[in-house]
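Question (not urgent): is this output format expected?
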Amino acid sequence: MSKHASIHLHTAAIDYTVYNKALQLLIQNGWNINRHEVFAVIAEGALDWEGESHENVESLFTRLQRGIEQNHPTAIDLVYTGTQAGLSLCYVNPNELRLDLTDEVPKIPIADLPDYTWYLERLIPVFPLLHHPKVTCTYE
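Got this back:
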């Protein structure tokens, strides 16, 4: 059975503007949406990941915006520069962003558990934007 690790950020009033600013802050601080020659995205009510080519960056952001404005679960995959550690920035609802930990998740060696500290340190620039959200980490 596969385990799923995620970080939930609970706050008020998450809309496309906040989501986009959070995404831009992550990109400015070492996270990259350019992965495997495509952008991986779930938007506009899609039920599974879709690849968006590099030529369609504007279309990508339009799809993200429409998905969030229609209150659909929306997500984009990111990978941290110089690593294979990834996350999916997921819009869940107007009060929650979820960060699903993907690919080469750094682990705490003695417990074989996700190293949430590694991720949280790289997410700090987003916290002021979300007015210091309630943070919960899950591993199930």
